[in-house]
Amino acid sequence: MATSAHVDTFALDHLPPPEALPEFIFELPELQLPERLNCAEALLDRRVAAGDGDRLCVQGQGVRWTYAELQQRANRIARVLVDDLGLVPGNRVLLRGANSPMLAACWFGVVKAGGIAVGTMPLLRAKELGQIIDKAQVTHALCDARLADELAAARAGSPTLRHVLHFCAPGTMDPASSLEAHCARRPPHFEAVPTAADDTCLIAFTSGTTGVPKGTMHFHRDVMAACACWPPHVLRATVDDVFIGSPPLAFTFGLGGLLLFPMSIGASTVLIEKASPDALGLAIEQYRATVCFTAPTSYRAMANHLMAHPGQHDLSSLRKCVSAGEALPAATRQLWRQATGIQIIDGIGSTELLHIFISADEANARPGATGVPVPGYRACVMDEAGQPLPPGQVGRLAVKGPTGCRYLDDERQAHYVQDGWNYTGDAYLVDEAGHFVYQARTDDMIISGGYNIAGPEVESALLLHPAVAECGVVGVADEARGQVVKAFVVLKPGEAADDGMAQALQDFVKASIAPYKYPRQIEFCSSLPRTETGKLQRFRLRQPAG
Ligand code: 3UK
Predict the structure, then answer these.
(1) pTM tops 0.90, yes or no
(2) Which residue, by CA, sits nearest to atom 8 of ligand 1?
(3) Could you tell me the pLDDT band of residue 173, with boundaries at 50, 70 and 90?
(4) Residue 216 CB–ligand 1 contact under 6 Å
(5) Which class does domain 10-14+35-228 fall in?
(6) CB of 261 closer than 6 A to ligand 1?
(7) Which residue lies with its CA nearest to atom 2 of ligand 1?
(8) Which CATH superfamily does the domain covering 446-542 fall into?
């Protein structure tokens, strides 16, 4: 192994001990990576050196940058970090902003300089930012000026954070102190720091909804491994594709899908700030985007909109659509196909494993199933004792491959990694054809009257009813049955939320899946609680109303 280029050894010092790591496998020829590797150099500088500098790379917020232009911006940012702010390789740099070309330039600037990028979701408040800063011992921050307040509040209690620069500063801020002003005073050249392939370049915090956030550490080689597995084997986009989508770059689903993967093939990406289903539909049309990444609910909302207002949006440029973050209900797959003709590519990934490890392309998609292990990965459904289960039986999903879980100084490492396998916390079964079929998060399984019931299966059944816009199904405490199935249902506009509707929905579910799974309780609501990454917050549905 090449020696580390980190001068600040914080990441090295806080990796899990070797015996707590998952097994890593690098069997594919494309996973034979060099020992010296800076992934920013590999994705950006090499592209420019190969003569593709004039190709369009990133657009959004009124700008269009070629690869050479992004490189120059990243170089100036790296110079500012090193020359003005004293960054040394291994320092952690917090990034805060909605998706934008400038945020992408910051990511590449940090990583070229040998820094460790720490992305943060735009909606995080001071308390959560403070936890992240403390956990990752963040030393520097680059922050969109419009999101400055919460970071300023967090900074008061976070002594490690020494330097903050703002970008996109409005007229009211001192323009000379902005990141852009610093950049203008620096040359557009910067040689990437020759990091080791196993130097950490990214600490991604989980979008977990409870407890202290967990930081997952990823090496330069992990980034290149993620680019070498799912994108060429399943997505198979081309250099002329225009990527677009909603997940924040702070979420590794967005970082990969909207930045690393397009750049790994010399394609271009559109980074939009607001990506509600409406805004995303509009942007797809405006930019003639061809490859879209978003969550299942967003496809459902866009499809419903398209069907309700035919001809209003022209999404004919789209050719590939990727769904991840939570299970894709068969009804949503079908609806999107009806609305656009496109078969969605579903894929399960996790922050711990960086990106997607089980998926199916358009030709192999099976409604209700996630797919098969992505080349480079192995997956297995295990019983409680860690033994593989036969097809058809529900157990715990275990995965290994070229990427894997390394929590930053966290006892929960022993929970995610057992016997060299990454346990994602999902209950799955493998069907006779070898497809992995999602059931539920293991701790979300509903046990009612002795039966195991997976909430998402009931949700999928309800979503096929024409009156249902969205729904969430959880178990609530019940004296007689232990738990009973309860559905929270958002109806489409104009539908009546009354007892007759509840009865109709119950009958509808009983007619399509085993009757004991039907929701004994139904509560109508106007929206469902979701994370910034589109995941339903089931724990909030379980809390008694109040
Ligand atoms: C769930 C899915 C069923 C599953 C992610 C793609 O979601 C991502 O990372 P997170 O750490 O959450 C991981 C958990 O989310 N999940 C994700 N995708 C699916 N469940 N079908 C799916 N297609 O519980 C998993 O354990 O937030 C997704 C790429 C990168 C990611 N970080």
Answers:
(1) yes
(2) 350
(3) low
(4) no
(5) alpha beta
(6) no
(7) 326
(8) ANL, C-terminal domain (3.30.300.30)
Find out whether 35 and 224 touch, Cβ atoms under 8 Å: no
Tokens encoding 449? 């009257």
Task: Classify domain 275-306+320-441 at the CATH superfamily level.
Answer: ANL, N-terminal domain (3.40.50.12780)
* Residue whose CB lies within 8 A of the most ligand 1 atoms, among 261, 332, 348, 530, for a mutation test: 348
Q: Which two tokens stand for residue 328?
A: 């894709």
Nearest to 294 by CA among 336, 240, 236: 336
pLDDT, mean of residues 85-104: 98
pLDDT digits (tens, 9 = 90+) for 14-53: 999 999 999 999 999 999 999 999 999 999 999 999 999 9
Going from N- to C-terminal start, the domains of the chain cover 10-14+35-228, 275-306+320-441, 446-542
Write the pLDDT tens digit of every residue in 281-313: 999 999 999 999 999 999 999 999 999 888 888
Q: Which DSSP symbol is given to 233? A: I
Asked whether residue 440 carries a pLDDT value surpassing 90, the answer given is yes
CA distance 68 to 48: 6
Task: Tell whether ligand 1 has an atom less than 6 A from the beta carbon of residue 206.
Answer: yes
Q: DSSP states of 108-147 as a string?
A: HHHHHTT-EEEEE-TT--HHHHHHHHHHHT--EEEEEGGG
Q: What is the distance in A from the centroid of ligand 1 to the CA of 372?
A: 15
Helices (H) and strands (E) in the chain, counts: 19, 25
- What DSSP character marks residue 515? G
The residue among 290, 175, 273, 194 whose CA lies nearest residue 238 is: 290
Q: Distance (Å, rounded) from C-alpha 92 to C-alpha 11?
A: 9
Q: Is the dihedral of CA 172, 173, 174, 180 positive or negative?
A: negative
Considering the chain, what is the average pLDDT of its residues?
95
- Count other Cβ atoms within 10 Å, centred on residue 32: 9
